[in-house]
Design goal:
Low-confidence stretches: none
Order of helices and strands: HHHEHHEHHHHHHHHHHHH
Distance between the termini: 41 Å
Number of strands: 2
Shape: globular
Mean pLDDT: 92
Radius of gyration: 19 Å
Largest sheet: 2 strands, parallel
Structural class: mainly alpha
Oligomer: single chain
């Protein structure tokens, strides 16, 4: 696709909640319910979208505290950057001729929303505090995954790829759709979060007892765990495992060390987190609220 055509599609969509320099923002607000629900809720809780600053572009993990505390969502002005290229010589380049800088504002907005849901919740142990951080990260991962799963065509693919850490994949989308159809949207989302939770805790396997409890708590009435569902869940787990290993190890360690947790990341994360996650009402209540936000079922009004 030519840059000129992409910019034309971008300009064809309008929304009072869109930002003109976020490539495809208004298009995604109209065509992607997860993207729309996250952005609208972020704005509803007082978030401000701001052009990304150098410190964020160079060390994004180090800026997370600033982003959350100030509810500032950084974005890359890819539309403006592409327009400057197009202005140099009209219709000369396609999107395959250059790397378009990606913007991760969907992921960062999900982080702020998760922290807002946990606001005021007290954590009495270091393990609970670590778990809260990993749950927030896993929620942002799950949001990326479910937004990408809604992609239907080339234009949707291009705009979603530019505004998410994940790149849409047909196989992953089909897995999430089948899980949603078989066990309901709440199960599909919470199980995605749990798969990312295990990946971020550097665990390769999810115990069968966890699966049974997820089905009991979150699957729709009359839904059953079948061999096909088990196969799709395993595919979902493997999808989560594809998270950047450098991020899961190096970046997580740096963040936790800066937050006051000393030692190697494998040592810091070496505790049984699922019993805490499943048994503590503070975590289960938050997870339900987060699902409702993604599904567009929860509003502050």
């Amino acid at each position: 696709m030519q840059i000129q055509e992409l910019l034309s599609i971008h300009s064809a969509f309008r929304s009072p909640r869109s930002h003109a320099d976020i490539l495809g923002d208004a298009y995604l607000l109209e065509h992607n319910s997860v993207y729309r629900n996250i952005k609208l809720h972020a704005l509803e809780i007082g978030c401000h979208y701001q052009e990304a600053w150098p410190e964020y572009l160079l060390l994004p993990f180090h800026q997370l505290g600033h982003i959350v505390a100030n509810k500032i969502i950084p974005y890359v002005p890819a539309r403006r950057l592409l327009q400057s290229v197009e202005d140099k010589r009209a219709n000369a380049l396609s999107i395959d001729d250059m790397h378009i800088p990606e913007s991760y504002h969907l992921h960062e907005a999900a982080h702020v929303i998760a922290e807002e849901v946990f606001a005021g919740v007290e954590f009495s142990t270091p393990h609970q505090k670590i778990l809260k951080f990993i749950v927030c990260e896993s929620f942002a991962n799950a949001v990326d995954a479910h937004a990408c799963a809604l992609v239907q065509d080339e234009t949707h693919y291009i705009f979603m790829r530019q505004n998410s850490y994940m790149h849409p994949e047909k196989k992953s989308a089909l897995v999430l759709r089948r899980l949603t159809k078989a066990l309901g949207s709440k199960f599909a989302f919470v199980s995605t979060l749990v798969c990312y939770l295990h990946a971020n805790f550097l665990r390769e396997l999810i115990p069968p007892t966890v699966l049974q409890e997820l089905v009991a708590r979150y699957a729709g009435n009359g839904c059953e765990w079948t061999d096909k569902v088990e196969k799709d869940f395993e595919a979902l787990r493997k999808m989560a495992e594809r998270l950047d290993p450098q991020f899961r190890v190096q970046t997580t360690q740096m963040f936790l060390n800066l937050e006051g947790f000393d030692g190697d990341v494998f040592e810091i994360l070496d505790f049984e987190f699922m019993p805490i996650f499943m048994s503590q009402p503070k975590f289960q209540k938050a997870v339900v609220q987060l699902f409702e936000i993604v599904a567009g079922e929860r509003s502050l009004r």
